[in-house]
Amino acid sequence: MSYVKSAALEERGFVILNRYDQSADPKEWLDLEYVDWKSSGDTRFAPLASAHGELEVDGFWNHTPPRTDKDGVWVDSQAALAPNLVRRAKEPGTNIGRCRVIELRPNTYADALYNLHQDDNNRLNPDETGWIVRGYYNLTDDPESVLILREDRYDPSSEVRLPLPAGMQVIIDTQRFWHATWHVGQEPRYSLITSWESGAALDAYIDAHGGSTEHTNPPLDQSVIDDAQREVQRRLAERAEALAEKRRAGGGEDR
Ligand SMILES: [Fe+2]
Fold first, then answer.
1. Residues 195 and 69 placed together within one structural domain of the fold
2. Domain of 254?
3. Ligand 1 center to residue 116 CA distance, Å?
4. Number of domains in the chain
5. Cα–chain-centroid distance for residue 104?
6. What does pLDDT average to in each consecutive run of 10 residues of the chain (255 residues)?
7. What is this structure's pTM?
8. Which of 130, 172, 201, 233 could be stapled to 94 by a disulfide with Cβ–Cβ 3.0 to 4.6 Å?
9. 101 C-alpha vs ligand 1 centroid, how far in Å?
10. Same domain, 230 and 129
11. How far is the CA of 149 from the centre of ligand 1 (A)?
């Protein structure tokens, strides 16, 4: 399979854009309607573009007919409430798939590691077309929180920790990375997540916004990492045991 991909993301799998002046915009995310959707922790989502313009956030491949994460349809009632968020999603001028605001409640580092997952953005994506990557634009000011990326789910040495102050903008190949957010605040964290098709338009947008892969992780004590790694293994073992017990009891397959 060969897809059109961005050179800017090739080396590290992410590219950081210039900081956006979030304080200049109203907090549109507080006006949106949210639906419960468990993804990487205690989350809710406010869809801006969905498979058919409905107020739901499921992957486009789970709809009829199934399709890849492109040609998202704006949810009119939501888009009307968030003109700045829609403008930012449209700014690259490339095909948009899912576009939504995610709300995440505070969690722990171990929670985030347990929740690490890879996205499925390119399921059913036709060969020779643009690879789907995703914009993560932090809306609330969470400088102590980090978006965690790992090439290898269980290997802390592969970890990238991207701090999340207001206006932080990063484009990520979230199918390549195991990822989740560690949010240490008191209030929920909000982020605009948009699926974009790679290609010349996205490349020009990345260039125009100072795209850079320069990044140094904020420090994290080795003992914190070790403790969280152990906690994740404990939870995984506990879950495996619970599933085994369910099978022994004839409870059938876990979904
Ligand atoms: Fe994800």
1. yes
2. 221-255
3. 8
4. 2
5. 11
6. 92 97 98 85 92 95 95 98 98 98 96 95 96 98 98 96 98 96 96 98 98 97 97 95 89 52
7. 0.94
8. 201
9. 12
10. no
11. 10
